[in-house]
Amino acid sequence: MGELTDKISAAGNKVVGNVKEAIGKATDNEKLVAEGEAQQLKGTAQDVKGSVKGALGDDI
Prior knowledge:
The protein contains two helices and no strands.
């Protein structure tokens, strides 16, 4: 996957994670809050991966 693909996936995971977390908090569902937080972290990791690919090239 290229830099742009990683960054798009990252943005999607951050948004979905944020929504899950908000719904979990609104419904007092700790499991959903945790899933949302984990998905946001996954998005952050993908964003970093995309940035590294952008700096070093897509062949890593």
